[in-house]
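Loading example: each entry is read as two labelled lines plus one structure line.
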Amino acid sequence: MPLDASAISPELDIFIDSLDSRDGVLMPVLHKAQELYGYLPVTVQNHIAERLKIPAAKVFGVVTFYSFFCTAPKGKFKVSVCMGTACFVRDAQAVLERFKSQLGIGAGEVSGDMMFSLDALRCVGACGLAPVVSVNGKVYGRVAPDDVEGIVEEYLVKGGQNDERHKD
Amino acid sequence: MKLTINNSEITVENGATILDAARILGVYIPTLCHFEMPEVGVVNRTGTCRVCMVDVEGRHNLLPACSTVITDGMVVRTNTPRAVKSRRTMVELFLSNHPKDCLVCERNQNCELQSLACELGIREVKYNGERMKFKKDTSSFSLIRDPEKCVLCRRCETMCNDFQTVGVYSAIHRGFSTTIGPAFDLPIIDTCCTFCGQCVSVCPTGALTQADNTAEVWTALYDKDRFTVVQTAPAVRAALGEELGYKIGDDVTGKMVAALRRMGFDRVFDTNFAADLTVMEEAAEFIERLQNGGKLPILTSCCPAWVKFIEHQFPELLDIPSSCKSPHEMFGAVAKTYLAEKLGIDRQKITVVSVMPCLAKKYEAARPELMYGEDRGYVDCVISTRELARMIRESGIGFQSLPDEAFDGVMGESSGAAVIFGVSGGVIEAVLRTAGFLLTGEPLQDVEFHELRGIRGIREASVNIAGRDIKIAAAHGLHNARRLLEDIRDGKALYHAIEIMACPGGCVGGGGQPYYRNDLSVVRRRGETLYECDRKNPRRCAHENLEVKRLYDEMLEKPGSHKAHELLHTKFTKRTGY
């Protein structure tokens, strides 16, 4: 869902204005922006560069350095496959591969209908349940590749119900 | 602060680094990423390459000499086995991730990484891991980015951010994918890059190089149906020699002209002729603004990097630069009209080649408003001083044994005022000489304005002409331009005329000149040569140029005429971009 410049909410500017200084505040501003928009598209990064009077290349440099920041929109359902050590040795790779083929997207991507996004991440702190998958914060433990279809199905059903955001 | 380096004791100022102290002592420590130009306040002390590692007593780890500030009583050893081994290892690691095409690289024999590998006696690359793959950016007319050859020294970033305040480059992405590039991975053509080429000037390897236009020039020279005309910018003559066995600052004008003739150019002309023409037009425009309440200050518009800078960064101030084209564009316009007519040659058959100290001129020649017809520019092709040197070597001309020859007539004469266009402060000095004459009706007593010369970022002068105090400024480096423009915008700067050049020292330090390797004394020497050329010229002022006079008599009527505007003036465009 690309954002155009006019869609930048006043909340971000209010936040920037509330800061004591314009120096050294790039990180908190980026955190705030990602919280507001879910991701950091070019228009938002550029807006931040202009407001903080720093080159856009610097903003982009920081955004692409930290894996926490993402420059592509996330899906309605954010699927995260844990690739931490415990999950990794219990073949989380196979689970990730199955999600990729099931959803038709790669890690770090979002499906064309904006329903699902897929990420591989490091330890979620539930190693006893390895391999672990979380969807919008809900944790699934001891996931086998064959469970993947069922999990996706669960959200496809949910996705069809009271979906305000994707009506158009 | 007292310290010992390799058993020699030295006392240095607070805040000095180990490298500073070592250089004072004459102890050599190899470096790669480090560079500084204190004269203009630029320092790259990122400490990223780890080539300058030294042993410090009491410290478990080796420390980078370039970025370690001295503490009192420090005992440093630069040549312990582990320091030497560490240096080698660092360079070997760089080589393991570096393309091995040195033989055909633009920077072959002129590359700091290659020199280091040679100096450290590296004979094999021990580490054969995966090499990072990046796409070359060939989007612009001026420069080529090849991130595979980048050693992440960040000199380009320092030049672009600190000296030019343009901010195109930053370290982007992470880990092995890290590269120094523009925002959003944009091709450089889509950024606010001014194409000044200073990133190319400071790049230690072939990661940033000029766009190569030599092939087009050879094609035109070999084509018997084309009439080839070449012009050389003032700053070229003071630097070309460095590439061809001469000392820094040697003036090689005569041999350069001879070489160009032997390469096959039908006419060898001087951009200085057009610089005199620029003075005539700009002085007339200045006087017209001064006397009729026009917009002041007037800003020079010879430097295409500076022009692009104001278009991006201060689009609200586009009515203050002079509307004059840059000299080489004026030359192109005159060559394809006046000269074509004089020689009875169809202008479609003429190829105009500019030899420039500059990479931005390559981009400038492609600006649509400087074209006539669909896609033909008044200037067809721009090559840099370095490219000309390469062409001379390639053609097997024994440069040093050439006779000194003179430029061809019609567009070859020039005054001393023209040659100083190549050094920061020279354009405005040249304009003052002629404006002074035009305002008072008599020649100025002293044509040299020493307050406007030198390497300081912004120089100022107040000159009394015809009972009026004229306030002048000259600046180099776009960070200084930004300061002046902010003051103008805020109504704080009360100048009548300002000259701005993007590169350190003006065109003599241009992005297309032989690499000055962060040594501004090289740039200064070239500048002194141009002032010397000026002094030796019996004609010191543009209005004394007889060929320019003839051009006005036969075609342009007078400076600022309708015809002059049509051919010699241009317009500027508001631009955005990151």
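Chain B has 18 helices and 21 strands.
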